[in-house]
Specification:
With 359 residues, the protein is of the alpha+beta class. The protein has 14 helices and 13 strands. It has three domains: 162 residues, Nucleotidyltransferase, domain 5, CATH 3.30.420; 98 residues, GIY-YIG endonuclease, CATH 3.40.1440; 72 residues. Helix content is 39%, strand content 22%. A five-stranded mixed β-sheet has the order 3-2-1-4-5, sandwiched between helices.
Length: 359
Amino acid sequence: MYAILDIETTGGKFNEEGITEIAIHKFDGHTVVDQFITLVNPERPIQEFVVKLTGITNKMVRTAPKFFEIAKRILEITDGCILVAHNTSFDYRILKTEFDRLGFAFKKDTLCTVALSKKLIPDMPSYSLGKLCKSLGIPMSDRHRANGDAIATVQLFKLLLAKDTDKRIIESSTQYIDKRNVQKKLNLLLEEAPQTQGVFYLQNENNKIIYIGYGKNLKKAVNALFLKKGDTAQKIQEKVASCTYEATGSELITQLKYHSELALLKPKYTSLKKQKGLKEPFAHPDMILVDTGRTLDEHAVVLIENNQVIGYGFTTLAFQEHRLDILKPLLTPIEDTAVANNIVKTHLNSKTVQKIIRL
């Protein structure tokens, strides 16, 4: 679980800033399940240059709650979460400073979308939130206001999760595990499983991925694995400490994602079957396959160039699907293998996609 946040401050000397606005979106890896947005009375004047940047004035925050009045709500919404922000060191420092003033030690694991973007989307002209979102076609509104920036960070983080093929984010996460009772532990893990199509990953107590699975309904797929009685299934049930999920929306994306990550990660308890056959050319060597996305306002896309499966991703705006310079940074690249080729060809032969864009 993640708490994706953005904070606006008064400006001023280091560690003497006050919070003027905060937005926190509790994110389960798929959807926002809770949110908290409010102006805050910083109990100190806002620097003039900050007023011009954010539009937040001293008059606007005069009747807003003070930090001690919202501290409990912040603790509640961030409980059990990893803090995520664009330049997390700033937002985390500001929160810690405010809680220190109240005599409370605020400690959280953090993830920074600036650092993650540099690793997962290299060679972008800028990694500032506004310019990065513009380059990726992520819509933004209310720039330099807490909720506008937080919403944009949620969309950026969704993209980073999808592109995190070696699961660096997942392996850095920690979750509570009741080791005294395996069944209770499995029930807790199962409660968090979404009823959506996608891929799931089981990690041991060292956060190493030991199993990858998939299903049209992830909760049913995980439950089926936890009910199995074989030796391998029993070992998985004993060793699993956490479970993470990635929704795909599309059966085609599910298959591509599952098989590519299986080959890349080689989890101990998921066998990789050898695939026979040669790559055969597609009916059209250059095309974009457009299918159902994870939400109603989203499309899943697969890019094929020169008869090679380049990658898959998700779009929310039509122009992203017609501009390769915008589309390619959104894609999770996959190795062009006979497996990927056969998955796409089999899907096109037996099922339909929403649209095929010939390039």
